[in-house]
Task: structure prediction
Amino acid sequence: MSISALEDNKPSQNQQDDFAQLLTSRRSVRAFLPDPVDPELMRKLFTLATSAPSNCNSQPWLTHVVSGASRDAMSEALMHTVGEGEHVLDFPYDGKYSGVYRERQLEVGLMLYKALGVTREDKAGKRQAFLRNLEFFDAPHVAFIFMPDWADIREAVDVGMYAQNLMLSLHAHGIASCPQTILGYNADVVREQLEIESSQKLLFGISFGYADMSRPENQILPSRASLSESTQFYA
Ligand SMILES: Cc1cc2nc3c(=O)[nH]c(=O)nc-3n(C[C@H](O)[C@H](O)[C@H](O)COP(=O)(O)O)c2cc1C
Result:
């Protein structure tokens, strides 16, 4: 689409409504069907994701998608390392929040545990819920999202925009996803499996495929804070 086409074609009310519906209906899915995504469609959607803006158009995202045998080998390798507490993160993350951020973290955690029937004292159930991340929630595909080693917080912002573009493009085609920081808990193992250099730094992974909507973990709907808690308007 040319820029002039954009200027001439102001989105219709229907298009605006459809877009709002697309944005608000995306959610993190934590149970997938085994059905694979068509490889050609995958290429199209990963290309769409690259339309994201970035500082100086640097496009600092580096993505590796695993499916089939490489997906299975990756899951096994992560189970044997991250699953056993061997953590090697390129970007530190302790998952400890406080105040209102802690409340939001607790809300989604409790929703998920409740859906899965995991009680407060159920350590084994909580561990199992953690390990499901490393099985990619049975998703047939996972995108590991890296950036070059010179990149810092500015470029991580660019990569976040790219990742959201990707998840929305997937969603627009009926394909669900779950972004997962846990998939970056052992960057060395992921690099080893992908046979890539340490010059690529791992931010997170995104499991994707078709959602199994019969599963209770896909019924949760984390809330959003009101607009006034995040956004101030000035005149
Ligand atoms: C960068 C990033 C990392 C995340 N990591 C995980 C993860 O490791 N495991 C998980 O189950 N969910 C993870 N999530 C999903 C969040 O829990 C989820 O986005 C949040 O609760 C809001 O829910 P929604 O995505 O369904 O709107 C992550 C989300 C983002 C954006």
